[in-house]
Amino acid sequence: MISIFEETKLNLHNAIEKALNSAMNSGDLIKAETNDFVIEVPADITKGDFATNVAMANVKVLKTAPVKIAEAIVKHFPKEDVETDKIEIAGPGFINIFMPKNWFSQMLDDVLQKAENYGRSDYGKGQKVMVEYVSANPTGPMHMGNARGGAIGDVLAESLIWAGYDTTREFYINDAGNQIEKFGISLEARYIQQLKGEDAVEFPEDAYHGDDIIEHAKAFIAENGDKYLNCDSETRKKALVDFALPKNIDKLKTDLEKYRILYDVWFKESTLHPDAVNHVINILTEKGLAYEKEGAVWYKATEFGAEKDEVLRRTNGLPTYFAADIAYHYNKFAVRKFDKVINVWGADHHGHVARLKGAMDAVGLDGNKLDIVLMQLVRLLKDGEPYRMSKRSGKSITLTNLLDEVPLDAARFFFIMREPGSTLDFDLDLAVEESSKNPVFYVQYAHARICAILKNLKATGVEPKTLDASAFDVLSTESERELIRALAQLPQVIVTSAKDYDPAKISTYASTVATAFHKFYTTCRIKDEADEILYPRLALCVAAKTVLNNVLSILKVTAPEVM
């Protein structure tokens, strides 16, 4: 099932290929193996509804001027295969294609018929996909990178759902290993300092220095007093971690829910120890891909493209984080049977991508089924200058800090305005500005404006009504067609976003639809028009409202009725 818009592009592509073959068979063009070409919407829509570069793409193989190639294609174009209004040759050989008015009518009718389901497709064929994102260290609060990763992962997951994939959202809780050991050491030191004074024990330089550690220690004392002051260190650290870690995880869940992120699965790393980790180490050992050296177990990562071999189990018998990561991804593919796994990571993890994909191959799985979305840093700007919310140097800016400064809708929208691989400049002033300069306000205002139109017309006794698709043939102005064309592209935008792992395409599209609607509103009257114009334009408003609502729901941004 594909949209009318995409079906038209496909039919045009096939028709042009047919025209090329006909032109070659007739002798108008020499016979050759032709190159592929694109069918796209031109930037200037007065030049056509679609344009193709087929002539320029085949100059070398057809050994003919592009204009001559274009003329031959137009001459042999099978009009019986695709109904068009006219086809023109422009510039050096572009072919511009204009569609008939009933094509626009059919696309508008499609939006109205599918309503809240418009944009959904079966492109993914129900493939089982996992998106793992944020997975913030539970030893502290979420920082700005987690906030961006949360928006990227969440919108990507929603795009995959709309594109027909069986999608699972997952958070990986790192509740084992070195960071938990460091968490325990940090809590222990603050616990002792709170009871005996800061000079009683030196706080480790590489421990966690956040105020949250002190708050945990105080809360632990309020509940347990000095009960653990004189016991052995391991017992004390375990008690402190068992007390503080669940609170941190609950806080992560609460903060993420406020950020409109709900996970299907919260997966604990601790469940992998020891059995699952030992299992993958045994697999690698049996395959001759693991060996002992100086009391440690090593994985032959160099046989799978890595620059150096990796330690799986340290000399003290404890597994490394990398061993746990292999076990975790083995669980994703071999145990839970996901067809595709997508991880959203910070760009600083780029060196880990190849070695983890290689490890999947090493344990007998397919590393190509693991895709990593690497996201760049966020730069906060205020008054056009880099900005730090915290006056304390060295403190990370948390998601909570950010949401104290800017609306939630703006945060979610702004974090996906650039593709993940681009550094994002987050303008704090723009995020709170109530004007058309603010992208999220601009999109939301388009939705609210439509709601106001519908409300005002209803007050005069005029409400939308079901129309036959042919009634929309009157919508022939440039702004009407531009809006219909924009609405028609939603299904393919969602599919492309899902395929490219780029949710920025969704926010960009939202702005495109808003722009098209504002232009339509400026140039086309609705109230007091004759019924044969009024009701089709009213239907176009309803369709635009539907598409904006669907897009904003994918972004998890509110669609206000009044602003």
Secondary structure topology:
Blueprint: H1 4-26, E1 39-40, E2 50-52, H2 54-57, H3 59-62, H4 66-76, E3 86-90, E4 94-98, H5 101-114, E5 128-132, H6 144-162, E6 166-173, H7 178-196, H8 211-224, H9 233-258, E7 265-268, H10 275-286, E8 290-293, E9 296-299, E10 310-313, H11 321-335, E11 340-346, H12 350-362, E12 370-375, E13 378-382, E14 385-386, H13 399-405, H14 408-415, E15 424-427, H15 428-432, H16 439-459, H17 478-488, H18 490-500, H19 504-523, H20 531-555
Parallel strand pairs: 5-6, 5-11, 6-7, 11-12, 13-15
Antiparallel strand pairs: 1-2, 2-4, 3-4, 8-9, 9-10, 13-14
Briefly summarize what is shown.
Helix content is 50%, strand content 12%.
Description:
With 563 residues, this protein is α/β, with parallel strands linked by helices. Helices cover 50% and strands 12% of the residues. The protein has helices at residues 4-26, 54-57, 59-62, 66-76, 101-114, 144-162, 178-196, 211-224, 233-258, 275-286, 321-335, 350-362, 399-405, 408-415, 428-432, 439-459, 478-488, 490-500, 504-523, 531-555; strands at 39-40, 50-52, 86-90, 94-98, 128-132, 166-173, 265-268, 290-293, 296-299, 310-313, 340-346, 370-375, 378-382, 385-386, 424-427. The strands form four sheets. A five-stranded parallel β-sheet has the order 7-6-5-11-12, sandwiched between helices. Strand 13 and strand 14 (385-386) form a beta hairpin. Helix 19 (504-523) packs antiparallel against helix 20 (531-555). The protein is globular and about 90 Å long. The chain starts with a helix and ends in an 8-residue tail after the last helix. The mean pLDDT is 95.
